[in-house]
Structure formats: structure tokens, C-alpha cells
């Protein structure tokens, strides 16, 4: 069996945490299969309205100027080998960058399912922002689950069910956190590339919190930072020259990176998610619409701009309740299979 996953590689580790969870979930239902990816990395698959290079290649009848060499689904290739297409997690499950994947689903009559998809803002299924082809594939899909209620409302009229993001299943093992000894903090900066950065306002706010956090808690707990994107490394060195930061080019390494902490804090939704998958509670510093996804990871939310006392009260309360929170999180993860049992995955 060959399953094509819409994801990114070497772009946003969160997308790959979602991919890991989706693969773990589907293996429970289908057994072993070959995972194939449709890579949405913007360096690999551009989504410009006017793309001179692509237009020129089209006129010349093929990849003359620019060849697609990525080890992923190529535009125009024979996709008759594919048995299923999966859109999972990310808000980028429609639009120009995935247009050819929808076309593949129709041209080769490949079933498509949507697992824990989310949104960055409100929409309606009948909006002009949906193409006729996208609507057609959605209406034919036998499985549509969403990770937030805004997406569920936007897909009104379809059988879209609210279930946590598949990143909740990204790690295969979990542990009960008995007490907090080591805390992980997700670093973020406004100087990283677009979509891997935060706003200047968010950056200033979290820097203030993080510095105060170190003052208050460094004598009580081991504290280390985590980076998801390479642009964060030089900026971290300037901001916290005496602190430790964890990073890897390989997203699978983040299971071990996050797994060594007892509590996670930061702005990365799926940093909280991959931690939750291991039974580790997290606090999300909510800086955009996607933060609601963290509710599916049983995470605590503190909005950017909140009084710092709210942040530190949330931390102190969570530390006191950490064992029960961890147990609840593990039970919540175990219930995931029960939530999807009724989704007809075996009948696709």
C-alpha cells in the first residue's frame, strides 16, 4: 500500500510531527505501508501567482530550465501507484501549493482523507477561496476530522468531526511525570524567515517573560531552550549567551529533545503537541489563531500581552498539579483511537 501525505520537509518541524502522528495512526488501521510525501516546503514547491520559470518550462514542454529533484511527488508524474492521499494538521490543506495534489486525487480516482486539519482564520466552505475541485474532493472524502472548532464551523454541511491534531500521536511511548525537575523553553524570534518567526511584539513579550523565568526558577529547576528553525540559533546566542539550546535538522530527534523535560513552555503549537504525546504537560504562549489547537493537547494557554503574574501563576499551579496533569494527558492520548474508531478508515 502506498499512502501520499501532504507535508513539509526541512521547513517547519511541526508539520513533520503531524506527519509522524498520522503515520502512527494509520499503521494501526492499515498495517505496514509505504509513506510517500507531497512536499510543500516553499523552497521546493513555490506557489506564486505568476511564476515565470514554470510558465517558460510549460511553453518549452517540460522541465527545461528548472528540474524538480526532490524525493517527493512531482507535478505531472504517474501517480497510479497511490492508494490514498492524506491531508493532515496544517492550515495549508487548500490553495495554490496543493492544487496539483487535488488534481491527482481526481485524475487517478485516489481517495483523500483529512486528519485534524486546522485554520488560521474564519472561512466558509462556499467561499470563493475554495476551488470547485477542492469542494469536489472534500465532498467525496469519507474521513474529515478537524483540530479546532473554527474549521469545523467553516466546513458546515460536511461530516467534519472535532478530534485533536495527529501530532498527539507523534511519539509511540509516554511516561508519567511525577515532579518537575527539568523545564524546556521554546525560543522564538522576529528575525527568522516568515512563517517560522514571531512578531516583534511577541518577541519582546516572551523575552521579558523568559528572562524573569530564569531569575525566579533557575535555582529550582534545570532549564534549557529548544529551537525549531536554524535562524533562531544565532539570535539565541545573542539573547542568552550562557544558556543551553537544543536543535536538530532532523525532526524525529525532537522526540528525544522534548522527552527529557517535565514541563514545556513556548510559542510552538506542535512543540506542545510532541511533548503531550509523551505525557509531558505544556504551556502555550498564544500568539496567533492556531493556538486553539493546543486545547487538543490539554495544554494551558497564556495570551501574548497578559500580565506576567498570569503567566507565573499558571506555571506555579501546573507544577503543583504536574503528576495528575500528566496522567490525564496519557489517558487523553489513549482515548484517541477510540475517537477515530467510528471514522470508517478500514473501509476506504
From TrEMBL:
All copies of domain Polysaccharide pyruvyl transferase, residue ranges: 12-288
Pfam families assigned to the protein according to its UniProt record, in alphabetical order: PS_pyruv_trans
Domain of life: Bacteria
Alphabetical UniProt keywords: Plasmid
Protein name as catalogued: Polysaccharide pyruvyl transferase domain-containing protein
Amino acid at each position: 500500500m502506498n499512502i501520499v501525505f501532504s507535508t513539509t520537509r526541512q521547513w517547519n518541524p511541526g508539520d513533520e510531527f503531524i506527519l509522524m502522528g498520522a503515520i502512527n495512526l494509520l499503521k494501526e488501521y492499515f498495517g505496514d505501508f509505504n509513506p510517500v510525501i507531497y512536499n510543500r516546503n516553499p523552497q521546493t514547491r513555490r506557489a506564486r501567482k505568476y511564476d515565470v520559470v514554470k510558465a517558460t518550462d510549460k511553453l518549452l514542454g517540460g522541465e527545461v530550465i528548472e528540474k524538480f529533484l526532490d524525493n517527493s511527488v512531482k507535478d505531472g508524474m504517474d501517480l497510479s501507484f497511490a492508494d490514498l492521499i492524506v491531508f493532515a494538521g496544517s492550515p495549508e490543506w487548500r490553495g495554490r501549493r496543493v492544487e496539483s495534489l487535488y488534481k491527482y486525487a481526481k485524475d487517478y480516482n485516489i481517495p483523500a482523507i483529512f486528519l485534524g486539519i486546522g485554520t488560521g482564520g474564519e472561512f466558509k466552505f462556499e467561499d470563493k477561496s475554495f476551488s470547485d475541485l477542492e469542494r469536489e474532493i472534500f465532498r467525496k472524502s469519507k474521513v474529515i476530522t478537524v483540530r479546532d472548532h473554527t474549521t469545523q464551523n467553516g466546513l458546515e454541511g460536511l461530516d467534519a468531526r472535532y478530534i485533536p491534531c495527529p501530532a498527539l500521536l507523534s511519539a509511540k511511548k509516554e511516561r508519567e511525570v511525577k515532579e518537575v525537575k527539568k523545564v524546556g523553553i521554546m525560543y522564538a524570534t522576529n528575525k527568522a524567515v516568515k512563517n517560522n518567526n514571531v512578531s516583534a511584539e511577541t518577541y519582546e513579550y516572551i523575552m521579558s517573560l523568559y528572562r524573569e523565568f530564569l531569575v525566579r526558577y533557575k535555582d529550582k529547576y534545570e532549564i534549557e531552550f529548544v529551537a525549531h528553525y536554524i535562524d533562531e540559533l544565532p539570535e539565541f546566542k545573542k539573547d542568552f549567551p550562557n544558556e543551553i539550546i537544543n536543535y536538530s535538522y532532523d525532526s524525529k530527534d525532537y522526540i528525544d529533545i522534548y522527552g527529557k523535560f517535565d514541563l514545556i513552555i513556548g510559542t510552538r503549537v506542535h512543540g506542545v503537541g510532541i511533548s503531550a504525546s509523551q505525557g509531558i504537560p505544556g504551556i502555550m504562549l498564544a500568539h496567533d489563531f492556531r493556538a486553539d489547537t493546543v486545547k487538543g493537547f490539554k495544554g494551558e494557554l497564556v495570551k501574548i500581552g497578559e500580565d506576567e503574574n498570569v503567566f507565573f501563576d499558571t506555571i506555579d499551579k501546573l507544577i503543583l498539579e504536574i503528576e495528575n496533569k500528566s496522567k490525564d494527558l496519557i489517558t487523553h492520548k489513549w482515548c484517541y483511537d477510540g475517537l477515530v474508531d467510528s471514522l470508517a478508515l478500514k473501509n476506504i
